[in-house]
Specification:
This protein has 599 residues and is an alpha/beta fold. Helix content is 28%, strand content 18%. Strands 1, 2, 10, 11, 12, 13 and 25 form a seven-stranded mixed beta sheet that branches. A six-stranded antiparallel beta sheet has the order 7-18-19-20-17-23. Strands 3-4 form a two-stranded antiparallel ribbon. The relative contact order is 0.18. The structure holds flavin-adenine dinucleotide.
Length: 599
């Protein structure tokens, strides 16, 4: 590999990508048919699908700026959290969770860039399975059962994994590329084998076997990130009926004099304030933290909370409640015999040929998103049944905390606890497993800090309110240890890293249930799946904010289409489900305005 031609290839591809992203609209119209707030996973899909109707004019508003080509390098995903493309939120301090982190706060990164959180994410592409969506329909949400959402999951995909390419479950004509990473570490292969030796079936968790082990399916195209902007906006760059306004923050909704109909939005761009009207609808796709924030700033939210901030109440609705997330016990690491290859930053920086290889071919270790390589989904009560409804995921990362000097800052570790616990690892080769709670019972809340739209919202995760959530995580940790004892793992010398968290020894010896529970409460890792804060439900469900056609109860011309709408978090990473919600939501809009729609 020639470093110069590789680098030039990288620069040329990056320039092309920049040219393909729809430009910032310098001069905004005063009126559009639809205004979509937030160009994240959902917003890019909606902007694409609505502008398929040639006489609809759509404005897509995004607080962040362009995606750039460095963001497409899968291995550097962690680093993006230190850039302006992240809103950099933190949770309220707690002793029950995130307790081993600085000021007992978890970092909650969210994308602030064209492409939203699909630009910061680890590209893991999972959908959830039949019971997740039948559960939604069972709550009264007509049209959201598995049989009704599956066609939309297929519509999203350009599925590129031949061994799983079963047309009952997968599509090949969609905008989003789904593929395996073109590189696997030997350790990941041993782990996948070890999981099978324990009893898990190798299979397609997005198809026949929701509870199985496999290498990750990824929203990736030829070894590079395929964000929602790359997938849905780039191919339609040039559509005259789409305007994109970047670096533009929506601060409030505008209502008619009866306060029952939305007329448009107020936004700030480069220090200037604008009022833009929507002839037909405003669609909020600002994500599960910012969509409730915009609603509450506009007077749609819990009356008592809005009163306390002296915000005039337009509609009393439980906005911001029902906040759900998936969490893992972080820092569960397994030392292996030294490998002659590692996904560590140290290794990569000492082997620049790897970097040049990716720049030229998009192959090699840099094509592994943040080191994430494989997963097991399982139902802890029926562990090895591949048809079961998972309540636990074990995510395999072919890298470790000591492999990257910045990882401790990603997760906000307390410096002393971090160095006491992980310092003794030195430069040992290791991998991590994140045992992840897939169907949490505990729910939190998003609140406003003040009437200032630029003040970050108050984020209360309320993890582990229910003891059973903690117990399940502990079961997941023990299961991860069991895999590490299988023959394929013994062959690479896998051994649980056992320097204890000093503060947890008072609850029990290292490896006891009580010790592991304390570990999970100290190193509570968000998996960034915040959702549910504008719950979809029937009008007489007092906990719901929108109906099953994604319209805000009691308000005309206003919909929410993003991760906020999930009535119950699905047992899955959330990006693919959000794509589905946006595809289906776009068809609902077309149907309601008597326009042609595609499924
Ligand atoms: C670090 C990280 C890793 C993740 N890893 C995975 C993964 O591997 N697999 C997976 O399935 N999921 C993953 N997720 C979750 C997944 O990416 C999200 O669930 C999904 O992107 C949410 O889509 P959304 O459309 O609801 O919101 P977002 O994609 O977050 O989009 C919201 C957009 O609205 C914009 N916005 C917000 N407020 C305003 C405002 N006032 N005015 C204008 N614009 C505004 C934001 O800047 C953003 O661009 C990850 C998320 C993160 C942050």
């Amino acid at each position: 590999i020639n470093p110069i031609t590789s680098f030039m290839n990288f620069v040329e591809e990056g320039t092309r990508q920049l040219d393909d992203e729809p430009p910032d609209q310098a001069r905004l119209l005063t009126e559009y048919d639809f205004i979509v707030v937030g160009a994240g996973t959902a917003g890019c899909v909606i902007a694409n699908r609505l502008t398929e109707v040639p006489d609809w004019k759509v404005l897509l508003i995004e607080a962040g700026v362009n995606e750039n080509y460095v963001m497409d390098i899968p291995l550097v995903a962690n680093y993006l959290q230190f850039t302006e493309a992240n809103w950099k939120y933190k949770t309220q301090p707690s002793n029950r969770y995130c307790a081993g982190f600085d000021n007992k706060q978890c970092h909650w990164p969210r994308g602030k860039v064209v492409g939203g959180s699909s630009v910061l994410n680890y590209m893991i592409y999972t959908r959830g399975s039949q019971p997740d969506y039948d559960n939604w329909r069972g709550m009264g949400n007509e049209g959201w059962g598995w049989d009704e959402v599956l066609p939309y999951f297929k519509k999203i995909e350009n599925f590129q994994i031949p061994s799983f390419n079963n047309s009952k479950y997968h599509g090949n004509k969609g905008y989003l590329n789904v593929e395996h990473a073109p590189f696997r570490t030997p350790v990941s292969k041993a782990w996948v084998k070890g999981a099978q030796q324990l009893g898990f079936k190798y299979g397609d968790h997005n198809g026949e076997n929701p509870a199985s082990v496999s290498f990750l399916q990824l929203s990736m195209k030829n070894g590079t990130r395929h964000s929602s902007s790359r997938a849905y906006l780039h191919p339609i760059n040039g559509r005259k009926n789409l305007h994109v306004s970047k670096a533009s923050m929506v601060t409030k909704l505008i209502f008619d004099e009866t306060k029952t109909k939305v007329l448009g939005v107020e936004l700030e761009k480069h220090g200037m304030k604008y009022k833009i009207l929507a002839n037909k609808e405003v669609i909020l796709s600002a994500g599960a933290l910012n969509t409730p924030q915009i609603l509450m700033l506009s007077g749609i939210g819990p009356k008592q909370h809005l009163d306390s901030l002296k915000i005039e109440v337009v509609k009393d609705l439980p906005v911001g409640y029902n906040l759900m997330d998936h969490i893992a016990a972080g820092g569960l690491q397994f030392i292996v015999r030294p490998q002659n290859l590692s996904l560590s930053t140290r290794y990569v920086l000492n082997h620049l040929d790897i970097v040049f290889k990716w720049m030229k071919t998009h192959k090699g270790p840099l094509s592994v998103p943040g080191g994430c390589e494989a997963l097991v989904f399982t139902d802890l009560k029926d562990k090895f049944n591949p048809k079961a409804w998972p309540d636990m995921e074990l995510l395999f990362i072919g890298s470790s905390l000591n492999a990257d000097p910045l990882l401790q800052y990603n997760f906000n570790f307390d410096k002393n606890i971090y160095s006491d616990t992980f310092g003794p690892m030195g430069n040992a080769d290791a991998f991590m497993v994140f045992p992840m709670l897939m169907r949490p019972k505990s729910k939190g809340r998003v609140m406003l800090q003040s009437r200032n739209p630029k003040a970050p919202p108050i984020l209360i995760p309320n993890y582990f309110e229910y003891e059973e959530d903690l117990k399940k995580i502990v079961e997941g940790m023990k299961l991860a240890v069991q895999i590490s004892r299988q023959p394929a793992m013994r062959a690479i010398g896998a051994k649980l890293y056992d320097v204890p968290i000093e503060d947890c020894l008072k609850y029990g010896p290292f490896g006891s249930d009580e010790y592991f529970a304390c570990h999970a409460q100290m190193f509570t890792f968000t998996i960034y799946h915040q959702s549910g804060t504008c719950k979809m439900g029937v009008a007489d469900d007092p906990s719901s904010v929108i109906d099953s056609r994604l319209r805000v109860h009691g308000i005309e011309r206003l919909r929410v289409i993003d991760a906020s709408v999930m009535p119950e978090i699905v047992a899955s990473h959330t990006n693919a489900p959000v794509y589905m919600i946006a595809e289906k939501g776009s068809d609902i809009i077309k149907e309601d305005w008597n326009r042609f729609y595609t499924i």
